[in-house]
Design brief:
heterodimer; A: alpha/beta; 12-stranded mixed β-sheet; two-stranded parallel sheet; 9 helices; 14 strands; B: mainly alpha; 6 helices
Chain lengths: 325, 116
């Protein structure tokens, strides 16, 4: 069984930073926004490092904590060797774990943090997730200067950073359980359609989660998937219905909630920051959602392995969260 | 009239590219290479010269013209100096485009910062 039950794990506060296109998108209200992709730094990578640093600092001051109060920092992003996360952490005197699961990074870090806290080995853990459109696109797609046309099924990496505190001290947001996903490989090779590559992984994890915990999908007020986009969401629902006989009615995809429809973003938003941006700034602010299942999906390929004609493999991790009184 | 013909020929090539990108898994990189090869095959068949006469810039500004220039200058080199000429003259007529691309993009990269 790959599902875990947590005891005494809470989320306390978050800090969200969003980029230029995100702030004119559907959500609009973030803790901090900026207009320039450089964020007053010399390179895009340094801009992403700065985002993470600010997100950690502001979260610390929000909770009235110092470096010494934090037991562990878990962060991840899309850059090669996750250097942006590691370099952002060098300004802090906190133990650090860098994680990578592409766009499933946020849920992976929540699962690791929750496990440490649930078994009482640590008390305060900060989880940070970021992505930057212009650091990621050049690694996974084309250099931005190339200006190549994009397919309607392609997604647009969101720019932003979200930090949150996972803690053992009680708050109104409780992390109840989680399901660690398996690698799903359906021999899919279209690098312009990550939604289709990741949808089967999301379906597999949702099925395992409901099955392990012996609950129905209607138990949740909302099931928020990571960044499947417009077409990936449709595929997920059809796939669940056909293969697992699950009719998903309370589904929302974070990829469809960040940007307004425009030609640039095609199928929607992607990147590890997509799901936490929507979760903290839309879902948690809506009082109707009490029982929430986060399913972050990630495509774990690299351009190199695709050039070697291998397929795109995907993973999805689920975290169950409950808003309590 | 030449403008109409240029529009029709260039439009036809672009339409083929659009159909390919919408209906296959090929990326823009694949399609660029495909059109270069297509240009050199048309040149081998003697059709590309006729296309240039017919449509003017409608045939020469496309990436397929790069294939045409590679083939024609390579062939010229082969006729004049044999196998060594094929190697030394292959890029002759496309040199203007390649060198200007390198020079101007270097200048622009120094002046401007890349943006989205």
């Amino acid at each position: 069984m790959s599902s875990l039950l947590f005891d005494n794990v809470y989320l306390k506060g978050s800090f969200s930073i969003a980029g230029p296109l995100e702030k004119i998108g559907k959500i609009k209200k973030y803790d901090l926004t900026f207009d320039d992709y450089y964020f007053k730094e010399k390179t895009f990578e340094k801009a992403e490092i700065k985002m993470q640093r600010i997100a950690i600092n502001r979260l610390l001051s929000l909770n009235d904590l110092k470096d010494s109060n934090i037991d562990l920092l878990i962060s991840g992003d899309l850059s090669n060797q996750i250097t942006n996360s590691s370099y952002a952490t060098r300004s802090f005197d906190i133990s650090y774990l860098g994680v990578y699961s592409a766009c499933a990074t946020f849920c992976e870090s929540l699962i690791i943090a929750s496990s440490f806290i649930s078994n009482n080995s640590l008390n305060n853990i900060i989880c940070v997730t970021s992505s930057h459109n212009l650091t990621a696109e050049k690694e996974f797609r084309y250099p931005i200067e190339y200006g190549s046309p994009k397919k309607k099924t392609s997604t647009f990496t969101a720019t932003g950073c979200v930090s949150t505190l996972v803690t053992s001290s009680r708050s109104n947001i409780k992390i109840k359980s989680a399901t660690i996903g398996k690698i799903v490989d359906l021999d899919f090779k279209d690098s312009n359609h990550f939604g289709a590559a990741m949808a089967p992984a999301a379906a597999d994890t949702i099925y395992n989660h409901l099955n392990d915990l012996n609950i129905d999908s209607s138990y949740y007020d909302i099931i928020l998937t990571g960044d499947l986009g417009k077409y990936g969401s449709i595929i997920l629902k059809e796939y669940l219905k056909e293969n697992y006989k699950i009719d998903l009615k309370n589904h929302m995809d974070a990829g469809c909630e960040v940007f307004c429809d425009s030609e640039n973003v095609n199928a929607g938003s992607s990147g590890p920051v997509t799901i936490p941006l929507v979760f903290f700034n839309k879902i948690l602010k809506n009082k109707n959602y009490k029982k929430i299942l986060l399913v972050a999906t990630g495509a774990l390929h690299s351009p190199l392995i695709l050039n070697q004609k291998d397929s795109i493999i995907a993973i999805a991790h689920a975290v169950s969260i409950e808003v309590i009184k | 009239m030449i403008m109409l013909r240029a529009f029709l020929i260039a439009g036809l090539f672009c339409m083929i590219g659009q159909v390919i990108i919408d209906n296959t898994n090929l990326t823009p990189g694949h399609i660029t290479s495909l059109f270069t090869v297509l240009g050199s095959i048309l040149s081998f068949l003697g059709l590309y010269d006729k296309l240039v006469d017919f449509a003017g810039a409608g045939a020469t500004v496309l990436i397929s013209n790069f294939g045409h220039m590679l083939y024609s200058s390579g062939l010229l080199g082969l006729k004049e100096d044999g196998i060594l000429g094929l190697f030394s003259k292959l890029l002759c007529s496309s040199s203007v485009a390649i060198v200007s691309a390198v020079v101007f993009s270097t200048i622009l990269a120094i002046i401007f910062k890349p943006k989205s």
